[in-house]
Write a structure and sequence with these properties.
With 118 residues, the protein is an alpha+beta fold. The chain folds into 2 domains: 85 residues, Pnp Oxidase, Chain A (Roll); 32 residues, no CATH class. 19% of the residues lie in helices and 37% in strands. The chain is built from 3 helices and 8 strands. The chain has a two-stranded antiparallel ribbon. Strand 1 and strand 2 form a beta hairpin. The radius of gyration is 17 Å and the shape is globular. The chain starts with a helix and ends with a helix.
Length: 118
């Protein structure tokens, strides 16, 4: 969580953020993925759409890499990720908070109230 927060605060123009992580390459061998991430989607760029000074990349997911502890149930592989065990960090731009799937509704409400968004 600390490194993810730091990534959002420091520009990649000033610092090589890849040094903060253990990286690996998938089958396409075109983009690094972060080993510490419980789920990584390997994509092939299909189209690049220019939006003024920005570009949107449209991709096709070609492979998924997921930790076994979130894709196994009772010791057997499943075709889905257990969201409670994954416990992803969720950012909602409508409120200045980040949350978690496993956070209680009361905790989320309290965070919104503290941020003045409730």
């Amino acid at each position: 969580m600390v490194v993810a927060d730091r990534c959002g605060l420091i520009s990649g123009r000033d610092v090589d953020k890849s040094e903060w992580f253990d990286v690996f390459y998938g089958g396409l061998e075109t983009a690094p993925m972060i080993s510490e991430c419980p789920v990584s989607l390997e994509c092939r760029v299909i189209e690049t759409v220019s939006l003024g000074h920005m570009s949107v990349l449209i991709g096709e997911i070609v492979d998924v890499y997921a930790d076994e502890d979130i894709t196994r149930e009772e010791g057997k592989p499943t075709s889905y990720a257990d969201m409670e065990r994954l416990d992803p960090l969720i950012y909602c731009p409508e409120t200045p908070t980040a949350g978690s799937v496993s956070a209680s509704p009361q905790a989320s409400t309290k965070a919104r109230e503290e941020a003045g968004a409730a």
